[in-house]
Amino acid sequence: MTFFKRAPLAAAALFIAATAAQAQPATYKVAYIDPLSGAFANVGELMLAHLRFAVDDLNAKGALPGGQKMQLLQFDSKLSAQESQSALQAAIDQGAQVIVTGGSGSSVVAALVQSVNRWNERNPGKELIVMNHSSIDPDLTGKNCSFWHFQTEANTAMKMKAIANYIKKTPDIKKIYLLNQDYAHGKQWASYGRQMVGAARPDIQFVGEQLHPIGRVKDFAPYVTNIKAAGADSVISGNWGQDMTLLLKAAGDAGLNLRYFNHSAGSVPGTVLAVSQAKIGQLTWVAEWHPGEADTPKVDALAKAYKAKMKQDFLAPRIEMTLRLLAAGVNKAGSTDSMKVAKAMEDMTFESVVGPVRMRGEDHQLLLPQVVNTIAPVDGKTVRVGWDGTNYGFRTDAVYTGNELAQGTECKMVRPAQ
């Protein structure tokens, strides 16, 4: 009889415990896959710090519905498509629902997107979303677009359009050399440069073109010699990380005063320092914001809070914005179900620190403003703040809205049936 009296009590206790467990907020797991070792580890660590800040802030503010918390998992891509595939499987095994990437290069991101497409086809109800904060190959939102991929950075064509518009109004640029990393994005930066700058300024001469291995050149002196021999006054280069800083050093050592036109190198640690040490040459790049930009109170406040917490400088609003867009999509969907979140983010307008941005539904390309700016000495007027411990900062040359730079797309989006 004792047994039968206690059994209902035990069952009730188990039921209450199970109910309590189910009531606990779920963890929304986001996996970061980007380089955390090797030549571009400093780039990956910078991006990771921006994402950590966003996660902490979102969780502190209860930004996800139902008391859910966002958890950031981290994996080293080692700048390799193969290593990224291993990282993807590890992320899946740990319950990730979202992959955040972009700093590994477009070829790696493209491989991740393809793998996610295959996973999602085979695992309905367990789909993954890819949030791409920095790989800007137009094919990712063009002919190779995916319903599961969202790009939160302006693509190569948008950035080159901004640069071409600026060069059109800069008559002292006459002879351009194309020097780029030998991978998909480097080749595209060169191609768009020749096409778009050539169309904007038919009088410009393209006097040479070279590709070099990504992350493996230790001395750019031979490339600088070729640039000098060609008589170039400017270089269109998609180089980033050490490939840009070493190029700047070699040109400075050779006494070659060049203008460089780039997509994002100015936001990478060490670039401003390299320009200041070279003392000659100007690097012009394109981003949604630059430190010291006038009339950006929301970004300034965010940058101040970031530095206070992370003990380092804030450089890229779009990276931490990526997770805020994701959180907005979750709230709009009222669920962390990947299918619902992806549909919610399509054509979603978001009030960001750099102004309103829109995730274009037809190809999942974010339309956000772009600022053409040049690394230059602080003068208290056009350059207000020094960076990287130097007296060099950023000068605003031109500002364009996302709509002004928007391009057509080859995307023929295939959406899931349900």
UniProtKB/TrEMBL annotation:
Keywords: Amino-acid transport, Signal, Transport. Residues 27-366 form the Leucine-binding protein domain. It comes from the Bacteria. Residues 1-23 form the signal peptide. It holds the Pfam family Peripla_BP_6. Belongs to the leucine-binding protein family. This is Branched-chain amino acid ABC transporter substrate-binding protein.
